[in-house]
Design a protein that fits this description.
Number of helices: 4
Order of helices and strands: HEEEHEEEHEHEEEEEEEEE
Strand order of the largest sheet: 8-9-16-11
Radius of gyration: 23 Å
Strand content: 25-35%
Distance between the termini: 54 Å
Number of strands: 16
Helix content: 10-25%
Length: 272
């Protein structure tokens, strides 16, 4: 194995990432926890051959080694608060996910995730500062079956109008507290905060600590404006409104839920 790794990192030019997958067995030998794979020496050789390479964290295994420069790779879960080091600083991480309950193609698989579940999963990764690796298993013909294509097309359709809330985005500022059933992503360069509504609010949504910060709010999918007003230190997005009829102000119907997997409201912040 050591010779094969050396060959891969020597004969094929620049290699950006090497991804080991064996965290449950790397350190196990006859029920004991030790480093039979000499993981630290392996990591040192990798960095000597490719100094800029990205190395994941699965060489640690049960030996609890600390391999420098690693990225974290949680599997089939999204860390609720992201992943941080002992000083509270965000760590680079990538969640490993599947379209269904199986990693490879399985004809009789019944636990496929819906398009909405997959979109929520993508949003949750980005909102917690992570990247999402999505596994797709082809059939023996080298093709994706109908169920996989339906879900990938659904993801693509959502991304067509909502990609701005994903690409270039990550953790929101500490002062931005997520409303219930919502997730924030944040583009620091463009000063845009994106509110992903897992449950569409009935008439309004209150955004904590946004008073004095918000310049404009709009539905991301079509750019339609959403009115808002400040309430103390908070901002209230008005998903209903009032209109004049015969000089009488009457309530307008509540804004309908946009017809997409997860609606997104783009919050354009004031520049300092």
């Amino acid at each position: 194995m050591r010779g094969q790794v050396r060959e891969l990192l020597t004969d094929y030019g620049t290699v950006d990432i090497i991804w080991f997958d064996g965290m449950f067995s790397w350190g196990r030998l006859d029920g004991r926890t030790d480093d039979r794979w000499e993981s630290e020496q392996l990591a040192a050789m990798i960095r000597e051959l490719q100094s800029a390479i990205i190395l994941n964290d699965r060489l640690e295994g049960e030996c609890k080694l600390t391999i420098p420069g690693e990225i974290r790779t949680p599997e089939q879960q999204v860390p609720e608060k992201g992943i941080r080091d002992d000083n509270g600083e965000p760590i680079v991480w990538e969640g490993c996910q599947t379209l269904s309950g199986a990693w490879g193609y399985y004809r009789d698989e019944l636990t496929w995730k819906s398009v909405e579940e997959l979109v929520r999963m993508l949003i949750s990764h980005v909102s917690r500062g992570g990247n999402m690796l999505l596994n797709v298993g082809p059939t023996s013909r080298g093709q994706f079956d109908r169920r996989a294509r339906e879900r990938l097309n659904g993801l693509a359709e959502w991304m067509e109008t909502n990609a701005r809330s994903i690409h270039g985005c990550g953790l929101s500022p500490d002062w931005a507290k997520e409303p219930e059933h919502c997730r924030y992503t944040y583009n620091a360069e463009r000063k845009r905060l994106y509110l992903h509504c897992f449950v569409w609010p009935y008439a309004a949504v209150r955004l904590e600590n946004l008073a004095g910060r918000l310049f404009h709010a709009q539905l991301l999918s079509d750019g339609s404006e959403i009115k808002f007003h400040e309430a103390g230190t908070d901002v209230v997005l008005e998903l209903h409104g009032r209109t004049k009829m015969n000089q009488i102000t009457v309530p307008r119907p509540t804004m309908m839920r946009p017809d997409e997997a997860v609606p997104v409201i783009e919050l354009i912040l004031k520049t300092p």
